[in-house]
Specification:
By secondary structure, this protein is an alpha+beta fold. Helices cover 53% and strands 23% of the residues. The relative contact order is 0.09.
Length: 164
C-alpha cells in the first residue's frame, strides 16, 4: 500500500511494541495485514517501527547524553560519589562501553562494615545494540554466604552452558 506512511505505521504498531519491543518488521507487517488488511513493504514497516521505538523509548544519542547530565547532577548533590562513564571512539564518534556509579552513603556503609550480601543479575539488551547488562553487588562479611552464591552461579553456568 503506497499511502501507508512511516508515520501511520508508527501509530499503528506502538501498541504491539509496548507489549513486545523485540518484534521485527516482518512480524509487524503480518500484524498490520491481519488487523488492517494492508500489505506494506518491509522497508516502510521497518522505518515505522524505528520511529515508534524512538517515540516510546527515546533515541540512543539523547539517552547517552543524559548519562553525563546524571553524572553532573550526582556529583553536584553528593560530591564524593563515584560516577564513571566508560566509552571509546570509533570513526570519530563516541561509543558507550559501560557505566558505574556508587553514592557516597553507600561507599561509607560498605567501608564501615555491613552484612554479607551478594547480588548478581544480568539482562539481555535487544534492539539496535545487542549484548548483556551485568550487575554485581558484593557486600563483604561472613564468607559462607558469598561462597554459596558464587558456587550456585558457577554450577548453574556449567549446567546450562555459558550464555545459552
Amino acid at each position: 500500500m503506497k499511502n501507508a506512511t512511516k508515520f501511520w505505521i508508527c501509530e499503528k504498531v506502538k501498541n504491539f511494541l509496548i507489549v513486545d519491543a523485540t518484534l521485527g518488521a516482518a512480524a509487524l507487517a503480518n500484524k498490520l495485514k491481519e488487523h488492517h488488511k494492508v500489505n506494506i513493504n518491509y522497508k516502510r514497516v521497518y522505518d515505522g517501527k524505528e520511529l515508534a521505538l524512538k517515540h516510546l523509548y527515546g533515541d540512543w544519542d539523547s539517552s547517552f547524553d543524559n548519562m553525563f547530565k546524571f553524572k553532573a547532577q550526582v556529583e553536584s548533590c553528593c560530591p564524593v560519589s563515584l560516577v564513571v562513564i566508560d566509552h571509546h571512539i570509533v570513526d570519530d564518534r563516541i561509543r558507550f562501553r559501560r557505566f558505574f556509579f556508587a553514592l557516597k552513603p553507600c561507599i561509607d556503609g560498605f567501608l564501615a562494615g555491613c552484612r554479607p550480601y551478594l547480588a548478581i543479575d544480568s539482562t539481555f539488551l535487544t534492539g539496535k545494540y545487542k549484548g548483556n547488562w551485568l550487575v554485581l553487588v558484593l557486600l563483604m562479611g561472613i564468607s559462607g554466604c558469598i561462597m554459596f552464591a558464587l558456587e550456585f552461579l558457577i554450577q548453574k553456568l556449567l549446567r546450562t552452558g555459558f550464555g545459552s
